[in-house]
Design goal:
The longest helix has 30 residues. The protein has 2 domains: 196 residues, Glycogen Phosphorylase B (Rossmann fold, 3-Layer(aba) Sandwich), CATH 3.40.50; 159 residues, 3-Layer(aba) Sandwich (Rossmann fold). It is an alpha/beta fold and 407 residues long. The N and C termini lie close together (9 Å). Helix 9 links the parallel strand 8 and strand 9. The strands form 2 sheets. Strands 3-2-1-4-5-6-7 form a 7-stranded parallel beta sheet, with helices on both faces. It is globular, with a radius of gyration of 21 Å. It comes from Paractinoplanes rhizophilus.
């Protein structure tokens, strides 16, 4: 069967889907991933076909405002509009090129991808890394998971969903016109598409239980893990650093804070030294710089599945994939969230007892980071909770339910 996975965003929004694609290919399917050009190498390295989508989130993130305030969320929505407007034609072009039998759609592309699936008569399913559907059981992703009580959570969840839906209204109308589909009111369209196929959620029920008030079509599968290039080897410098002392801490912010590497690097190095720990700093999109010193090492791209189990703790932006990798490794975290779903996962890690209280990136200072490092390393409870969750996560197979559905 020919499968097309469509996803948009940063590397954290692409890597889990390459893992799914590898599993599908191993099951005998032909798989392509449609995403942005900077991720072509990662997709093709996994042995999957690549289809380009317009846009590059790096430029968007450079102007993003972090946080959960109304101003910050409005700014994030404004920055997302041009990318969303360009995605619909890109998805249609990818489908025309691949001619798939099955379409899998990530959170950001799903509202547009459903229109393309309707036009081509395709089986489709959502494949979401975060729980965006409203529920009474926890607060909305867009409010960082803050609870307003059962009915408040539901009301805020629907309000957040309506706000996000407004970003897609114009692009959906235009895309349906281009595809020759009839006009339809957005609420009716949403109901139709919720019935058109399931939505799989790629996180562990041990980390976030499936809400009891969700419709049956919304399923929680377990995490989807990125593949590791079999040709990858750690550098001699990294191996020597790890062998030359106690387990260090990892500090990296993934795709966040482009261009802020020097400032963040100074904070990270000073905090690690104040806490009395060695550190591995991953450059990421910020260009996080380690500086010189025998107690700090800067690295580029290193698989988290290899690196994190060798760490004493991990400091990260709490993106869904990075948060999952830390739990899988069984190491405690210091979350430094910026935007989107990161405050939600940061709060969840802390509530589970596997992480220090989140430090929003605008509030990151040497002393706050040093204090959090001392806390998670000095209290064995954090590591014990992370290890208990690791055992449960390791027993799950998040790809299996989707493979069963594909047939």
């Amino acid at each position: 069967m020919r499968i097309l996975i469509v996803t948009s965003g940063s590397i954290g929004d692409v890597a889990p889907y390459t893992g799914l694609g590898v599993r599908f290919r191993q099951a005998g399917h032909e798989v392509a991933v449609a995403t942005h050009a900077p991720f072509r190498a990662a997709v093709e390295r996994a042995g999957l076909g690549f289809e380009p989508l317009p846009g590059d989130l790096r430029a968007t993130l450079a102007h993003a405002v972090g946080g959960l305030s109304a101003r910050a969320l409005a700014r994030q929505f404004t920055l997302a509009r041009p990318l969303i407007a360009a995605l619909g034609p890109g998805i249609a072009a990818a489908v025309a090129s691949v001619q798939p039998s099955v379409l899998l759609l990530s959170t950001m592309v799903a509202p547009l991808g459903h229109q393309v699936a309707d036009a081509y008569g395709l089986r489709r399913a959502g494949a979401f890394p975060q729980p965006v559907f409203p529920t009474r059981e926890f607060g909305s992703v867009l409010t960082g998971g803050r609870s307003f009580g059962p009915w408040g959570n539901l009301a805020v969840g629907w309000a957040a969903a309506k706000a996000a839906e407004s970003l897609y209204a114009g692009p959906i109308r235009e895309l349906r016109r281009e595809l020759g589909l009839s006009r339809i009111a957005l609420p009716a369209l949403r109901r139709e598409q919720e019935r058109a196929g399931p939505t799989f959620h790629g996180f562990s029920p041990a980390v976030l239980r499936r809400p009891r008030d969700w419709p049956p079509a919304l399923r929680v599968t377990g995490y989807w893990w990125p593949p590791v290039d079999p040709a990858w080897r750690p550098s001699a410098e990294l191996e020597a650093f790890l062998a030359d002392g106690p387990a260090p801490v990892f500090i990296g912010f993934g795709s966040m804070a482009p261009g802020q590497g020097e400032r963040l690097g100074e904070i990270a190095v000073a905090a690690a030294r104040r806490a009395g720990v060695r550190a591995v700093l991953q450059a990421g999109w910020s260009g996080l710089a380690a500086g010189a010193g025998p107690d700090v090492l800067g690295v580029g791209e290193v698989p988290h599945s290899w690196l994190f189990p060798r760490m004493a703790a991990v400091v990260h932006h709490a993106g869904a994939g990075t948060a999952a990798a830390g739990l899988r490794a069984g190491v405690p975290a210091v979350p430094v969230p910026v935007l989107a779903d990161q405050p939600f996962w940061a709060r969840r890690l802390h509530d589970l007892g596997a992480a220090a209280r989140p430090i929003p990136m605008p509030a990151l200072r040497v002393e706050s980071l040093a204090h959090a490092l001392r806390q998670v390393l000095g209290n064995s409870h954090f590591a014990a909770r992370a290890q208990a969750l690791s055992a449960r996560i390791g027993a799950e197979d998040g790809a299996a339910p989707i493979l069963d559905w594909i047939g």
